[in-house]
Amino acid sequence: MTAPADPGAVYPVGLRLAGRRVVVVGGGQVAHRRVAGLLEARALVTVVSPEVTPALEALVAPGSVTWHQRGWAEGDLAGAWYAVAATDDPAVNAAVAAEAERDRVFCARADDRGLSSAWTPAVGRQGDLVVGVHGGGDPQRAVGVRDAVLTGLTDGSIADRASRTASVAPGSVVLVGGGPGDPGLVTVRGRQAVATADVVVADHLAPQALLASLPADVEVIDASKLPRGRSMAQEQINELLVSRALAGKRVVRLKGGDSFVFGRGYEEVEACVAAGVPVEVVPGVTSAIGVPELAGIPVTHRGMTHEFVVVSGHVPPGHPASLVDWAALGRLRGTIVVLMGVDTAPAIAAALVEHGRAADTPVAVVTDGATPAQRTLRTTLTGLAATITDEGVRPPAVWVVGDVVSLGA
């Protein structure tokens, strides 16, 4: 006889389903969500349903899921450790639950929690930590509490001291791309790394709000490189990362944008590897794409451009240190995104026009992207120099050349 719905009667337990057979009856969106969680637990999943969602079907071809393309049949739970009844037919779900009850297999009915022998909690994961919340019969309540706990673990307001302690020896470095400025655009993995750091070596373009939430015992080192101003030498940054890691600290190198897009991140990886320091790279949202996007400008658009190029403008065309083929860029029809190119903008615009780009090609200059001070200035290649001067544009700024600029207007 099936137990009645009583929130107080739930016994929370973690099922270790790796390598064990689980049967999901149904192929819709609910089934898809359940399968995703079961695969994360490395269960051997069998789906029984005449039809499945495209996302579920995509899991069948590589062998992640076994699909019986038919309706439910008595005996389908043979050998199963756990079952999910997730069809649109209550009679089928009842039959699945009845067989599960008879065979002593716990079963979650998606259509009726009261008739389920197992309730699926709201689950969240952070590394090897799993958070599961039962909401006393209210799924939305469970989701809200789960999300609050995960947010706290991510931003450090809920301290997972065991995780930090375990990560200290023998020392390591994580390069975190912090995105274009808004702390909300940092990846979940990036936030986790910062929240568990012993030392954070940060640039001025990194999301500063993340630093404010760190515990007082976390060492924060300012490694800013101001344009034509004070800056920490790259060699000194490399030495800091290595020395702190060799001292047994978990070191996070927090940068703006993405560490490998004009961020000299790979030089830091090389320094760590040479010193025998374990190093991890966490990609970030690069300002080359994120900042134009926040201004409403797509770097590609169907029927308008089939390519986009990201260019460093820190040295002008014709400079002995320049590695850019400006003649080739002038012949392109697609989008050009220029980073670190405020002072050199007039020379770059002139070179593009000289080598074939139309003088009236639209240009957008986005300053202070992903911050409350963000603004977008619109001009053309021939008008760019005057716009930079008249509007007092200073770094950080990203400017975009191409027909896509007109879309954001």
Automatic annotation (TrEMBL):
Biological process per Gene Ontology, one example term: methylation
Q: Pfam families from the xrefs?
A: NAD_binding_7, TP_methylase
Q: Which InterPro entries match?
A: 4pyrrol_Mease (IPR000878), 4pyrrol_Methylase_sf (IPR035996), 4pyrrole_Mease_sub1 (IPR014777), 4pyrrole_Mease_sub2 (IPR014776), CobA/CysG_C (IPR006366), NAD(P)-bd_dom_sf (IPR036291), Siro_Cobalamin_biosynth (IPR050161), Sirohaem_synth (IPR012409)
Q: Which GO terms describe its molecular function?
A: NAD binding; precorrin-2 dehydrogenase activity; sirohydrochlorin ferrochelatase activity; uroporphyrin-III C-methyltransferase activity
Its pathway, per UniProt, is: Porphyrin-containing compound metabolism; siroheme biosynthesis; sirohydrochlorin from precorrin-2: step 1/1
Keywords, comma-separated and alphabetical: Cobalamin biosynthesis, Lyase, Methyltransferase, Multifunctional enzyme, NAD, Oxidoreductase, Porphyrin biosynthesis, S-adenosyl-L-methionine, Transferase
Tetrapyrrole methylase domain residues: 173-384
Q: Does this entry carry the keyword NAD?
A: yes
Q: What is its EC number?
A: 2.1.1.107
Q: Which domain of life is it from?
A: Bacteria
Show the Gene3D superfamilies listed in the entry.
Answer: Cobalt-precorrin-4 Transmethylase, Domain 1 (3.40.1010.10), Methyltransferase, Cobalt-precorrin-4 Transmethylase, Domain 2 (3.30.950.10), NAD(P)-binding Rossmann-like Domain (3.40.50.720)
Q: If you read the UniProt record, what top EC class would you report for this enzyme, in one word?
A: transferase
The active site of this protein is located at: D203 (proton acceptor), K225 (proton donor)
Recorded catalytic activity of this chain's protein: precorrin-2 + NAD(+) = sirohydrochlorin + NADH + 2 H(+)
Q: What is this protein called?
A: Uroporphyrinogen-III C-methyltransferase
